[in-house]
Structures are given as structure tokens and as C-alpha cells.
Amino acid sequence: xxxxxxxxxxxxxxxxxxxxxxxxxASLVEAQNSVQKNQLKFGRLLRLVDGYYVDSVNVDDxxxxxxxxxxxxxxxxxxxxxxxxxxxxxxxxxGNFEGIGISxxxxxxxxxxxxxxxxxxxEKVGLRAGDRxxxxxxxxxxxxxxxxxxVFDMLRGDKGTRVDLKIMRKHEKDLLDFTxxxxxxxxxxxxxxxxxxESTGIIKLNKFSATTTKEFLTAINQLKxxxxxxxxxxxxxxxxxxxxxxxxxxxxxxxxNDLVVFTDGLHDPKREYRATSKGSFxxxxxxxxxxxxxxxxxxxxxxxxxxxxxxxxxxxxxxxxGLVQKPxxxxxxxMVRLTTAHYYTPSGRCIxxxxxxxxxxxxxxxxxxxxxxxxFNADSIEFDQLQKYKTLVNGRNVFGGGGIxxxxxxxxxxxxxxxxxxxxxxxxxxxxxxxxxVDQHREDLKSSYPEFQQFEKNFKVTSNMIEDxxxxxxKEEIEKDDASLAFAEKMIKKExxxxxxxxxxxxxxxxxxxxxxxxxxxxxxxxxxNQNEYNNLLVNTEH
Length: 543
Description:
Number of domains: 4
Helix content: 40-55%
CATH architecture of the largest domain: Alpha-Beta Complex
Structural class: alpha+beta
Distance between the termini: 74 Å
Radius of gyration: 28 Å
CATH topology of the largest domain: 2-enoyl-CoA Hydratase, Chain A, domain 1
CATH class of the largest domain: Alpha Beta
Largest sheet: 6 strands, antiparallel
């Protein structure tokens, strides 16, 4: 009897297994058949075009255009990357490339070394800022209409390979010969890190790369030695990067096991990412700065900070990218970055802005924000009431469906007088003036101001320097605008001084000057100065 019962049970289990095997995958089998059928269809079309079309065609080019169009029909962030572009695309996020280790500018049709990267191969052999590279591997490169892409092709290369340079240096009669062995060169994602006052520090990140967490930890540990109590994290203009890095940076501020973000997609099941107990700044007041160009990983960090009522967000509504892309290589070494999931902040909001009206309309979003008045007045922003959520500690209202809305809104300044200085910037007048000025006065500047503090306190941008910039603008058909110049002169002087500081000292010093009267940072400092205001902002449900 028991044996008979056992056989019946086994038969039922076997029948169930068969039904699972043959019934459940039916939709998958149908999808695979559809892909295979259309794959054959497209292949036949290419063969017909190649064999019978009236004119000669480039089948590779047609295929790439078809791929680009197909992906554009899916969403704004699924993209095709050619084989040639793959390596260049990966360099900034990998955190390094292989080359000789210089920053450069093409100035007066000559390759000018603006800085040598500390510890890099160029610094080791004695290359200096201000040197002009005249020949590379016995090939003359001065006065030939050099482009940035040409410089990359000539000077970058595999670690361990050799490049021979001929250098023109001031006060040297003959060209100098240098042989440089290429090496790995770091690409830094941290622009600046310093104390703004006795208790408040700032860290500015330009991307979320493979090295960002290490850079951040080094910076914050140094700031702690300088009595860090309050931190301003500047993510303005930060377009994102690695999801993993965004989670690691969020982890520095959140408590153990706090949800940072979760992802979910049709073929990519829900995954939660949580903070650990290793946060380097879990206590202490925190302000995060964002704007319309803060996207993706920046929004993961600012969204997690806001949802856990961990800090204050200041600035303007962020970009609104809530889609996760994964890279997939194609047969020829090219790649597609395919959207596989949405990501959601801890409260459950997806901050991806709508893209149902197509790619062209999606790319016009910045213009729409300008014309709608959103960039100038927080009241002009319309929130989708169906996407209202509550922060997880204090229950403040927050919204999904289009970026992270800051707790304190700072409008964009759009004075018409900006047009003059923007024309100078677009024509690179100010930057080229600084390159020329530093080139002529480098030794004097370094001897007069051996320390940045002396330069910051004592160096003045004179009226004669401004007149020289105006004259250079006229040569580029930028007519002097007296009213705009009166408005912008202070701004131009600050920019010139900041650029000189960058070339004489470092990028960190550029921001110490450039951010001195930054409206958003001044507001952040005011909030951090008043603990009651800071605390009230974290419980106030109104923006």
C-alpha cells in the first residue's frame, strides 16, 4: 500500500515538473523566436542592399546607424558606443589612463605644458609647466593646426612604451631632449577639499569613478584633522558614474543597514543596497549642493541623504536620471549600454523624468525649465501629486518623477550683462590671457608668492589686465560693452586670479578663490551657522 502511494506521489511530482518545464517558459520561447525571426529579416535586408542597391554602400555604417536608432526608440540613456570610443569612454570612470602625465593647452598653435602631474613620468624626468613641446618622436608638431585629439593620440600609449620629445624652454638657447616612459596616470574625481572656516569643510566631486571613494576618504580624514564638524558636499555639475561608488559615498553618511537605493526591472529582479557600519561622517551637520546638471549617481546620494533626513539639500532641481545601464559588448568590440532597471530612493521614489515624448523633447528639458520659470522661482515647479512620498525619519513631503528637489532653492542669476563675459569665455579669451600671463611671469609669481596664502591676500588683478582682456576680445569680434563690463569686472578679476592660482599652485586653490562669494555656498554656511535653522529644515515639510 505504501509503495503504491509512493509511486502515485512520484507521478504527481513528475507531472508538475513537466508542466513547469513546458508551460512556464512559453512566453520566453515566443520572445526568443521573435528575436530570431527578426534577426534573419534584418540580415536578409543587409544582404539585399549590399548585393542589389543602385549605389555602393557602407554596410558597417548602415548597421551602426540602425543600432543607434533602435536604442533611441527605447529610452534616452540606452546608447551605442563604437569600438574606437569604448576605451576613451572608460578612462574617466576607471580613474586612470596610460600616458606621460601632463596637463596641456594648445596655445598659439603650440603644445604648452600647463602642469605636470605629481609623481608622473614627465615630472620625474624634469618636464616643467611652461615648456613647449615642439617635436614628438622626431615629428614637428608646432604650427601645424594641432587638435586635442592629436595630442592624445601622440602622447598617450601603453605603460612602459617610450616617447621622445623636443622641448622649447624659456632662457634656453637650444631645444631640450627628453625621453619619457609612459605609465599609469591618475584621473582625479575630487576637484577640491578644504576648510571654509574653523568648523566647516567642503568636498567637491566631479564624477563617481572607481577611485572616488578612496579620494573622498583621504580628503575627509584630512579635514577631520582640521576640526571638521560640518561638511558641504558639492555635487553641482556632477553627471554621475558608477552605482557602486554612489552607494559607497552614501554609506559614509548613513547608519548601518539604512537602505541607500534599490533597483528593479523586468529582467533584473529587485535588489537592495544598504549602508554598512563603516561610515566616516555618520554624525555632524551635512549639506549637499545640487543643480540641473547633477545626475544619476549624484541623485542616488542626494536622494538617500534627503529621504533619511540626514542633511539639507541646497540648489536647484537635479537632472532626473533614474535608469540603470549595464554594458554589453557586441561581436566587433563595440558596446551597448542598455537600460536594465529603474533605481529608487529609500522612500520608494523613482526620480527619472518623463521621456514618453521622445528623445528630442527629452533633450529640450533644460530649455523648458528656463522658459517655464523653474530656474528662477521654486513656485514655478509643478509636482506630480501621485508621486508624493514621505521622508523616512521626519515625514517631510518629497516627490518622484523628475529629479531631486532641494530643501532650499537658489535661483539662477540671468542678468543680461552676463552675455559679455560669456562671450569672452566661449572664445577662451580669459583662459588664454591667463596662460600667456603665467607664461611670462611664472618665475616672478613663484618667487613673490611661495605660499598660496600670500598670493590670496596680496595678488591683485589690475585694471590694465582687464583692459588687455577686453582688447583681446575685440580682436575676436567681441565688442566692448561698458555697462556689462562694469557689472562683470569683479567677476572677471576673480576668474583671472583663480586661474592663475590653479596654474601656480593647484586646482584646490582655484576653488578657494572661485568659491569665496559663491551664493549657494554662502547660503549653506548660513544654514550651518544656525543649528536651530538647520534642525528646523529637517522637520519642515514645505520646500
